[in-house]
Design brief:
Blueprint (H helix, E strand, L loop, with lengths): L3 H4 L22 E5 L3 E3 L7 E9 H4 L5 H4 L1 E6 L4 E6 L16 H4 L3 E9 H4 L8 E9 L2 E2 L3 E6 L2
Parallel strand pairs: 2-9
Antiparallel strand pairs: 1-3, 3-6, 4-5, 4-7, 7-8, 7-9
């Protein structure tokens, strides 16, 4: 897992491949995320998470707005309290997929996408307290890997 310094140049709030985007091979299908192992608490703290998804287009078109329906769940391991939010920023409208193609047209199409988020912008109630947190992303029956992040006193 990358350390916090590697995330310093990530363009948070974007859906572009970035330096900390997890790499996947052509056979991979699903979601995978990365986050720093440790984040020191500060006034201007960010909680960066980068993700990659790769799905068959048939899976993608099951959703009105695939990227915006991905949910990130953060569990505070001190009290096992979960916090969650999707990738749609407050005040924005989702990008709706327009049109559906036949099963034959989508059977061989693979779609790869990325997301780079600051969990403090996505999940307003996420505490800014020292502790151990587990993070994963999910949509439908897909679940990413789980990453552990320590928020530490400076």
């Amino acid at each position: 897992m990358p350390d916090l310094s590697e995330f310093s140049n990530v363009s948070l709030g974007t859906f572009d491949e970035d330096v900390c985007s997890p790499a996947v091979d052509e056979k991979f299908r699903g979601l995978v995320i990365s986050a720093p192992k440790k984040i020191p608490l500060s006034e201007d703290i960010v909680f960066p998470v980068c993700g990659t998804y790769q799905v068959d287009e048939g899976e993608l078109i099951k959703y009105r707005s695939f990227e915006n329906e991905i949910v990130i769940i953060v569990t505070d391991m001190t009290d096992n309290k979960p916090y969650s939010g999707n990738l749609l920023e407050n005040g924005f409208e989702p990008d709706i997929l327009d049109g559906f193609r036949s099963d034959d047209e989508v059977s061989n199409v693979v779609v790869t996408g990325w997301f780079n988020v600051d969990l403090y912008r996505q999940i307003s109630k996420l505490p800014r307290l020292p502790g151990k947190y587990q993070v994963f992303a999910t949509i439908g029956d897909m679940k990413s890997n789980v990453v552990a992040v320590d928020l530490i006193k400076k």
